[in-house]
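hiii, so i know i said id send this last week but things got crazy w the move. better late than never?? heres the sequnce for the chain we talked about at the cafe, plus the structure i predicted for it. fair warning i was half asleep when i ran it
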Amino acid sequence: MPNVIEISDARDVLDYMRLSHSHWEMFSKQGITPSHSWIFRGQRDASWGLAPKSLRETPKPDYEVPGMPFPWSCLKKEADHVHHFLTLSERLGLATVPWRSYEKFVDEIRLFAYGESECLPEMDSEATEAFALAQHHGVATRLLDWTASPLTALFFAALDTFRTNNDCKCFAVWAIPKYGLYFDECRIRLITPRWSINSYARHQFGYMTLDTKADLHYDNKKGWVTQDVVFDNIDKEHEEMTGSFQKSMAFRKIVIPKGIAAIVLRLLYRENISPAHLMPSFDNVVKTMNYLEELDIAMLEL
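okay and structure toks below
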């Protein structure tokens, strides 16, 4: 289970999130592990697990393929959507990523799903780059977005909370130490998009995680296994291998009350964190201007 930290004051939240704080340092036999060894993800509902967009509903009717068993049809549909994104972008003259081997990857999925091949296709570097670029522009995939910046993760969680009317009482920022993702047997794969060609990932210090065995562990009754469950198992495996476990190295969930979302966002703007800063474009400059007016109105009502 994650180490849950509850913080109710907006300024205390920002202070806790700063990477300069000593609690982001991890101690090992090799000495102090730097604070950049963490990745972060914000979510508007603290009760949610860590589930990629395409794997949140079970099953997805629009992800069914005639004659192809679920969940392999889900992977096939995702790959088709990404392929459509790439081909249409190329036709419009938009720069994408190298994807010459991508069509082979899609064919391998089809052959495996129909039982014509015994080899489960693996996403190579070109496939993950294609998925990452498509996801950053709105295509639902099995990749889960993360950032090396805790304040950026806090921003997305607070913004989603501020703009959504729901019954959740708290939002959350998850923090995962990257050390556990480097074991050869780890089923969670850490992906670093090419920041040189993915501007959103560059400005957001973006990373992604992929559960490489998500389809194999799909259960017709329980559905998909969320990544927080997998991370919990990683911590347990690390404890078994080392014979000890430091609570400071456990993955964390920082829980924040919904009522302070507007204050958090205003404070983050002072830190140069806003839609315009994280996704630079003229459109987002205008959106940020409007969003600041919404924040000012919301804070008057507090």
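btw The longest helix spans residues 72-91. thought thatd interest u
miss u guys!!
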